[in-house]
Amino acid sequence: MAKKVLISGYIGFSNFGDDAIFAILTRHLKAKGFEITALSSNPSKTKKQFKVNTLKYMNLFDIIKGIASCNYLISGGGSLLQNATSNFSLLYYITIILLAKLMFKKVIIFAQGIGPINGSFWQKLTAFTLSLCDLVTVRDAQSYKLLGSWKIKSRLINDPAWDIPVLPRESRGYVGVQLRHYANMHTDFIKVLVKYIGLYFSDRRIILYSFQNSQDLKICYLFEKALKSQWPQMKYEIRSQNTIKSIVEGFSNLEYLFAMRFHACLLGLKYGIKVFALPYDPKVANLAQEFELQSIDVSRKPDDYNDKFRRFIEFKEHKEITQKRKTVFDWSVIDKYMLE
User: Fold this and answer.
1) Which of 6, 37, 136, 188 has its CA 20 to 30 A from that of 49?
2) pLDDT tens column, 251-309
């Protein structure tokens, strides 16, 4: 009889990064013979799209039913254990884990980025919860270091999105722009970003990507408005009806990319596109530092970006970065635990 896995994550919200990770995880688990059920905000859509069993993520009866019938609870990937979004979000994912342990289930933290977690109470609650888990894997060195300071044993792996299958790159010279809502974004940031993109890429077609319409589409329209005002002659398009497949295909045509989201930057790196990071979160800043990307903190007052743009265009990556971009996800830690 197939072992059963219940997956708890940011599922059913039409977010590219989380959908890509979920697709990669379910593909691997199916290949290993597991029966999969997911807690989703949109069960019917998730069931149709990913061919898995689904339950309503906010229905307590469904949650208990799903946990009771599984052999393993997988929490992740992405950044679930953080309260920058809200304390409720953090409490929700912690509660799922604690319920699973109360029912004596095996719990795996799957390639998560931990934090930021604000407040000593929330930090202690998260540390306690993680101490009960059977296998904790994190996707970045900062999360690994944080858990080490909490005396939590974890394994450092990489982000599952490195396993996204990409197409042969056919650069058309397009410039990709991927933005998302961020409450602390400086009010002049969009205007100044548009100014410099126009100064350096006036002859290029601009492709604006929405990775999650609820978070990204409004700011795409703000960028569009500023572009029409400052550079009415520039050609552009907004791509908002995006699937994993269409985004991966679209990125194969880019030469340059300006991106806020972690998985937009990662996909750009995987393709070998020149990526300019626009950090709104430590995970994006850390990725930019690791790959020596030019970056601008979107919360700071805009300055003269000429030097950054010149270095961005002229950058020649060295062998270590080229090799690092060829990263693939290592399943050995997960497989060794689940298949033993």
Assistant:
1) 136
2) 999 999 999 999 999 999 999 999 999 999 989 999 999 999 999 999 999 989 999 99
Q: Are 140 and 286 in contact (CB under 8 A)?
A: yes
In this structure, are residues 114 and 137 in contact, taking their beta carbons and an 8 Å threshold?
no
- The two tokens of residue 273 are 């596109």
Rounded CA separation 251/40 (Å): 27
Q: What are the structural domains, with CATH classification, of the chain? A: 4-163 (3.40.1190.20), 174-324 (3.40.50.2000)
Cβ 181 vs Cβ 219: under 8 Å: yes
Contact between 4 and 69 (Cβ < 8 Å): yes
- Burial (CB < 10 A; 0-12, 13-18, 19+), residue 271, is buried
Render pLDDT for 138-180 as a digit per residue (tens, 0 to 9): 999 999 999 999 999 999 999 999 999 999 988 889 999 999 9
Among 123, 166, 154, smallest CA distance to 271 is for 166
Question: Which pair of tokens denotes residue 275?
Answer: 């990526």
